[in-house]
Each structure stands twice: as C-alpha cells, then as structure tokens.
Amino acid sequence: MTENILQVKRNDEFYYPIVFRKNFEDLSNQLKTLELQERKCCIVTDSNVAPIYLETVKKELEKVSDTIISIILPAGEENKTLAQIQNIYEHLIKAHFDRKDLLFALGGGVVGDMTGFAAATYLRGIDFIQIPTTLLAQVDSSIGGKTGVDFLQYKNMVGAFHQPRLVYMNVHTLDTLSDELFSCGMGEVLKHGLIRDLDYFEWLKENREKVLNLDEDALTEMIYKSCVIKKTVVENDPTEKGERAVLNMGHTVGHAVEKLKNFKLLHGQCVSIGTVCACYLSLKRGLITKEEYESALEALRAYRLPISVQGLNAAEILTATKSDKKMEQGKIKFVLLEKMGYAYIDKTVTDEEMKEAIEVVLEESGEEKS
Ligand SMILES: NC(=O)c1ccc[n+]([C@@H]2O[C@H](COP(=O)([O-])OP(=O)(O)OC[C@H]3O[C@@H](n4cnc5c(N)ncnc54)[C@H](O)[C@@H]3O)[C@@H](O)[C@H]2O)c1
Ligand SMILES: O=C(O)C(=O)C[C@@H](O)[C@H](O)[C@H](O)COP(=O)(O)O
Ligand SMILES: [Zn+2]
Where does the 3-dehydroquinate synthase C-terminal domain lie (predicted)? Predict the structure, then answer.
C-alpha cells in the first residue's frame, strides 16, 4: 500500500517530507505547513526543463512569496561544474538573498546536486527544496542530501551533505521524459531491488510492461518503494560512514565509464554497465548463481539499459576506478551481492578480479551486447 507522504529523518530532531503528487498545486501549501512562506525564492532549473515546467512552478510559488527569481542552467552532466555554482552565487548576491531565503531545484539529478551544493555553501548553508523531474531524481538523487559537482571530470569530486527541507514529486513530470532518460532511472531502481529487496526486484521484472507504459499505479508504487529503500539506507548512515556505500553498487566502474566517455553515456546507463561487473564478481565469488546473474542482466536489458560498452579498454577503466572516492588506503570499497537482494561492501577485490569483471562489459567492435 503506498502512502502519499514519507518522512525522512534529517537529524536527531527534524524530518523532511517526500510528498507524492500528480501536479504542482500543493507546493505552496506544503511550504506553509513547513513555515517556509514569505521568503525570497530562487528556482534553479535547466534549459530543457524550464520551457516545460518553470512558469507553472513560479505561479504556484507566487501564492507564498513576493520575490521569485529563476536561474536556467545549461542542461547536461558536462555543466555540473563549479563555474555554474559561481553563476548561482552571483544571482543570489545580486538579488540580496539572505539566510532565510530558499533555493528550489527543479529538474533532474544534475540540477538537484548543483542546487543542493549551492544551498549548502551559500552563506554557509541555506534551505533548499527538491522538485525532481526525472525518474532518477525521484527515486534517488533528491533524497539523502548528497550534493556536489564534478571536478576535472571526476564525478562528484567536490560536494557536501546537505538535506533538503522538502522533496516534492509530481509524478506527471515523467510524461515528458524520453524513453532513454526513463531507463536511466531504472538503472538506480533495479539497483535498489538488487541491494536491499529481492521481492521488489522480482516485482520489477514482472511489472515491466506496466512500468514502461507509465501505468500510473505501477509507477507510483515503484517510485514509493524505491524511496523507502533509499530513505532507510540513508537514515541508517546519513554521511556514508558504512552501510550507505551499498547505494554505490555499480558506481565504481560506472563512474569510471562516465568519465572516460566524456559524459556522452548517461549516469544510469553507466551504472547499469557497472552493475554487470558487480554481479559478475558476485558470481565468481560463488555468492550468486549463474541463473541469478543472468536474471540480473535480463532485467537490465528488459528496461533498455546497456550491459556493455564500446571503445574503452580494461586498463584505462581500472586506472579510472582508482580515483573513485570509495578508495580507502589504496583499497577499493567494492559493492558486491552477498545474495540476490542484499549487498555488502567488500575491500578484498583485487585488480585482477576487477579487470576480469571489466572485460565482461567490453565490446571490441560492432553492436553492443543485447
Ligand atoms: N545526489 C545523489 O544521491 C545522486 C543519486 C543519483 C544520481 N545523482 C546524479 O544525478 C545526475 C543524473 O541525473 P539525471 O539522470 O536526472 O540527469 P539530468 O539532471 O541531466 O537530467 C537528464 C536530462 O533530462 C532533462 N529533463 C529533466 N526532467 C525532464 C522532464 N520532466 N522532461 C523532459 N526532460 C527532462 C534534463 O534537462 C536533462 O537533459 C548525475 O549527475 C548523477 O551523478 C546523484
Ligand atoms: O545516495 C547515495 O549514497 C548514492 O550513492 C546514490 C548514487 O546513486 C549516486 O549516484 C551518488 O551521487 C553517488 O555518490 P558518490 O559519492 O559515489 O559520487
Ligand atoms: Zn547513481
């Protein structure tokens, strides 16, 4: 049974709500409930999202604020940079934003991570609201307070933990998402099933048609379930001292591929490729069976995600993984499956094992594996 609200623990005292809605019409009421009305509002969005949703959100905010400005960032991962954060600071200073004022992230994970980072650092921290408009942002990036930017093309190299005050989901924003971008979100959704909930993973396989056809009930149920998994993990370990790193399954290789492909492959697609490596290593360690390994790959394929990559070699991917933030004293903290539906962090994966797993996802030429 899905509810239309979830409360996520922010610190020992406070929680923030994730609200699940079908339009933007409740946003101003939510702000009033949180006593966040009558503040200057800055909506940060991107060049693709602005023409579709900016005016509607602005109108809604006009019910609770006299000053609303907006910043339209160029869309795309290649713009997740410190230069764009500086751009945000400049707008805020010009409009005299103070510590009580609010930032709104209207967009996907790129806008969310950058707006959150600007909010974490402007005046040493102001409040911000997540309004995620991609599936990936709704099930993953808008929750848990990881914010930041890429630096020298290293993924999320500079950032801060800064929790939002509210996550406002309008599930209908997914109607305007391309199939490819929808599938990117499925990379993180399938990860949730694999790392923490086998029944959910099976449900995702069974409900593929409904999900891909954006059946409202199936979609709402799926987003809710993924949010519960993400909420549970981040509440247990908000600043990734331990367990939270399981949310990184597929990301060590994934981030390396994302960087080496100059962000031409999307995050969710790279996570999918990295997930194959993680599942392969779990198979080689005897933790999952061949059938289970195949079933994980089948699920990724079924949701139109890549399970291989062209134009890279194992050595360069391995080298790129060495600059991953999950390195600890020269050892990679790699996320493996202890069993289907349960992941753990393993610090014993060797370079030879890594290389073997990377070989599995390399395509020499021609078509990608399907
Ligand atoms: N903070 C976290 O916990 C966390 C978790 C997962 C991913 N991430 C980060 O999130 C980013 C990926 O997020 P993403 O996949 O949302 O990418 P994105 O933000 O680049 O959005 C993808 C594309 O979709 C467009 N778009 C957004 N909403 C739309 C809509 N409703 N209709 C039509 N187009 C729309 C955007 O303009 C963009 O071109 C990566 O930078 C990744 O590192 C962060
Ligand atoms: O919330 C988390 O924790 C995650 O790891 C979620 C990931 O899906 C996400 O891509 C995150 O941004 C990765 O964080 P990083 O610290 O490994 O860059
Ligand atoms: Zn991710």
Answer: 185-327
How far does the centroid of ligand 1 lie from the alpha carbon of residue 12, in Å? 30
The closest of 189, 85, 179 to 141, measured between CA atoms, is 189
DSSP 3-state of 169: strand
CA of 333 relative to ligand 1 center, distance in Å:
25
User: Tokens in use for 327?
Assistant: 């390195």
Question: Which residue in 58, 231, 251, 326 is the catalytic one?
Answer: 251
Q: What percent of the chain has pLDDT over 90?
A: 92
* Contact criterion met (CB below 8 Å) for 309 and 290: no
Residue 188 annotated to the active site: yes
**Where does the pLDDT of residue 2 fall: very low under 50, low under 70, confident under 90, or very high at 90 and above?**
low
pTM for the whole structure = 0.97
* Interatomic CA distance for residues 254 and 271, integer angstroms: 5
Token representation of residue 283: 């198979």
Give this complex's ipTM: 0.99
